Amino acid sequence: MNHLAARLALMLGNFVIGLAIIGIAGMLPSLATGLYVSIPKAGLLITAGAVVLCVGSPLTVWATAAIDRRRLLAASLLIVAVGHFLAALAPVYGAQLGLRIAMMAGAALFTPVAAATAAMIVPPEGRASAIAFVFLGWSLAAAVGLPAVALLSGYVGWQATFGLMGAALLACAVFVFRAVPEGLHGTAISLGSWGSLATNRFVVTLLLLTVAHIAGQFTVFTYLAPLLARLADADVNTIGLFFLIFGVMGFIGNVMATRLVTTRGPYNISGLALFSILFGFALWSFGAGVLVVMGVGVALWGLGFAAINSMQQARLVGAVPAVGAAAVALNTSAIYVGQAIGSALGGFLYAADLPRLLGFAAMIFVGISIALLATTREPRAP
Q1: For residue 382, is it within any domain?
Q2: What's the pLDDT tens digit per position in 27-49?
Q3: Could you read off the pLDDT of 198-213 as tens digits, one per residue?
Q4: What is the number of structural domains in the chain?
Q5: Does residue 20 belong to any structural domain of this protein?
Q6: Which domain holds residue 206?
Q7: What is the CATH number of the domain that holds 265?
Q8: Which pTM does this prediction carry?
Q9: How far apart are CA 312 and CA 274, in angstroms?
Q10: Of 296, 278, 263, 336, which is closest to residue 108 (Cα–Cα)?
Q11: Is residue 381 part of a domain?
């Protein structure tokens, strides 16, 4: 079995799925102009997608446990690819909203199933590292994908950008189908398993931690492009550079986390990641209007962004390995709850002409997540 090719395919699949989920943030100004809607209304596409992902992730993982992992993951990518091709041809907001909901329903299962599949094809002692490697895809989505989306949408328009994203999704669907071993199936998840997770205090605390830090980050992240333009008169190239800084630092942070987790442990790495995010938002908030200070803030924020996500997945799978896919699905759902909360709050503050408050709101949420982390030093037995 070619573990390396399979892990690479899962990582790249996570890259294009991650970009499909967060890519709108990079094209928000262009998309709002093209659809003749306000920035906050365009941002609601992210909120609506997050709601679908929140509900759909655990439901689809539960409903598809018996389906071959290779076919299931490839089908997920194919659905999202077709959605992007159709979005490139949809000129009105209502059609975009409907396609967004359909695409996110198809994308909902990919990340948790990919993480669980990676854990299946390596020895138990390699699970944390394998899962972190798969989540490098999200780091790459931020490091490479978002700057590309921001620049492409500014120069060639949002429709061509959607088309290119669709092509990338289609290519990854083929790669996943060819590289992931055949015959892998998920463990059937009973209602009792869901109940055991819901009553596991350690698991519930980790899920709340995910909601808190993601809500804080997406309060700013969803509106990063218009905030830079509004607070610091940033142009398209500068906005693209900020997305690049965020993404590259996210990739570096995740690589560092992947290498250090075996010696420092996921708890300690999680703490370092969250404090990096908090200090980043502090610089962004207090240095609003000064591009250099804001840039350093985005770099520190990015350093912890992907690392904390990888560590959360690894801690959950390690805590309840028998129902790891279900735990990861619930964490994925928690991510999208946080996205919905953060993007809605950010849109409200932006529409209320309070752009500087977005960073301070983010700091509060991240502070809550650090307080929650402090209660999880010793995991409870599953």
Answers
A1: no
A2: 888 899 999 999 889 888 988 88
A3: 888 999 999 999 999 9
A4: 1
A5: yes
A6: 3-376
A7: 1.20.1250.20
A8: 0.77
A9: 11
A10: 336
A11: no
